[in-house]
Amino acid sequence: MFTGIIKEIGTIKSVRRHGDGKVFQIAAKASDLKVDNSIAVNGTCLTVTSRRRESFTTEAMRETLLKTNLAFLKAGDPVNLERAVSLKELLGGHLVLGHVDTIGRVQHITKLQSSWLISINFPAKFQKYLISVGSVAVDGVSLTVARLHKASFDVAIIPYTLEHTIFQWYGVGTKVNLEFDVLGKYVEQLLKRAAFHR
Length: 198
What we know:
This protein is mainly beta. It has helices at residues 62-67, 159-163, 182-196, and strands at 8-18, 21-27, 38-41, 44-52, 55-60, 78-83, 102-111, 116-121, 135-138, 141-148, 152-157, 175-180. The strands form two sheets. The chain has a six-stranded antiparallel beta barrel. It has a six-stranded antiparallel barrel with strand order 7-8-11-10-9-12. The model has no long low-confidence stretch (mean pLDDT 91).
């Protein structure tokens, strides 16, 4: 479980194939990170498989690569990192599972007076999970939907968030991981079950 508050920007040191998956070595401080810990890489929950002083290794299986932008990562790429939340921490964003739903694409970036407005396209079938002023995780960052359209949404980014996430390197066409609010998914499932049992 994560909160969508990025703790560090890591850097991909190497990527290698392992069967139909990929193994990533990521440069990061994360001094308290241990083998078997969960960590969100661009919002994708992965397990630390080995640890060095200033890097760690993790692996993504085929199913994860099909659904996330991890498939496109290469050496030198920056990534958002967040450790799993502990029960004693403040929930600063919203509940993020690290289970990416789909990949979106940056449609355009508008510079405002003191912030940026990023418009992101996504498959229209996921529109039911978004509401205006609702929560969404973009590459693991907890954000609020500023405007909602049929197959895109806008999020407003303040300077602090831009400087402390990989958003600073976004451009038109950038592929981003999207995780929609889990509460909406549970409500949908409950309604489906209730309709089935009528």
